Amino acid sequence: MAKIIAGVAMSHSPMIMTNEAGGGDKGQHFLHTASEMKKVLEDSGADVIVLISDDHFNSYFYDQMPAFTIGIGECEGWGDWQLPKYHIPVQEDLAKHILHTGLDSNVDFAFTLKMKVDHGHTQGIYFLNPDLKIPVVPIAVNTSAPPLPTMDRCFQVGEVIRKAIESWDKDLKVAIVASGGLSHWVPIPKIESEKPEDQSLIQVLKNGRQEIDQLDEYLKLRETNVTRIKSGPVNEQMDREFLRLVTEKEFTALRNWSADYIEEHLGNGGQEIHNWLVLLGALQSLDASVACYEPIPEWVTGMAIVQFSQPVDQIHPEQASENKVSI
């Protein structure tokens, strides 16, 4: 049977690609830690990565917005934010097994044979699996278009993913990666906004890409609207409280956080911690340690990386030494 052996939860930000230097020493600390996590996954011998992130109104819009989507066939990156248009190898056997385990467990994933993912997923690929040596099971969570799945439901989905992996009849090692968060505020209008300046974008959010006459111009405008932000608010206190609850396994508290509470304290972009709750549901038995946290207003985001590993009393001493990351 397959076994979950490691996990990584990490923030993503388009600004890393467009303004790496703006992050200064804090940004370099984050990037150095990300490279260490790449080595951790390689050293773990992971045969598959279950990659959980979200879409930023590139593949899913209000005309069709699934809560949870799993890719079971082809998977390609949009190539947004100067990231490669990866052709991501999908471990289709495990993806389909998770899908069917979900159906048997009252979790109805949306699924697709032709998945397209944006920087939420591809930045995780870029830092942790750039050579695409490890096949992936891509899972997208709706963190952008309210009403959102609850944090509790995300945790339950993670439990089903764990159940599926542990019942998969392959002697392979599986790592779980979640990408998103922490605190940040994204310049996207609420769908109910009546401001005249918001209406053209709201029409796209409601109806999808068919509303876009000039796609290249639209994407360039979106990039310009974000990159012109030279600094954004970060709630370091709440970021650190969230990380404390994660590392101390205060799952009940996190499962009770509402979308309104998250938006108030972590911003609309902070809803991406829903991705982390899916990972936590899958990795309850693993220990979590904060490998890096840096509040980086220049990247408009509280940037965190958390490593998940087997409890020390369950691994051999030499393996524990190999998995230790210096911060």
Description:
- This protein has 327 residues and is an alpha/beta fold.
- It has a single domain (3-187, 229-311), classed as LigB-like (Protocatechuate 4,5-dioxygenase, Chain B, 3-Layer(aba) Sandwich), CATH 3.40.830.10.
- 39% of the residues lie in helices and 20% in strands.
- It has an 8-stranded mixed β-sheet with strand order 4-3-5-2-6-1-8-7, with helices on both faces.
- The chain is globular, with a radius of gyration of 19 Å.
List the helices and strands and how they pair.
Elements: E1 3-10, H1 15-18, H2 24-44, E2 48-54, E3 68-77, H3 92-104, E4 110-117, H4 119-128, E5 136-141, H5 151-167, E6 173-179, H6 199-207, H7 215-227, H8 236-247, H9 251-255, H10 259-266, H11 273-282, E7 287-296, E8 301-309, H12 317-323
Parallel strand pairs: 1-6, 2-5, 2-6, 3-4
Antiparallel strand pairs: 1-8, 3-5, 7-8
Please give the radius of gyration in angstroms. 19 Å
CATH topology: Protocatechuate 4,5-dioxygenase, Chain B
Distance separating the two termini: 34 Å
The fraction of residues assigned to DSSP E strands is 15-25%
Question: Kindly state the mean pLDDT as a whole number?
Answer: 92
Strand order of the largest sheet: 4-3-5-2-6-1-8-7
CATH architecture group name: 3-Layer(aba) Sandwich
Topology order in helix (H) and strand (E) letters: EHHEEHEHEHEHHHHHHEEH
Structural class: alpha/beta
Shape: globular
Unreliable runs, pLDDT <50, ≥5 residues?
A: none
The count of domains is: 1
CATH class: Alpha Beta
Number of helices: 12
- DSSP summary, beta strand count: 8
Give a short account of the largest sheet: 8 strands, mixed
The CATH superfamily name is: LigB-like
- Percent in helix: 25-40%
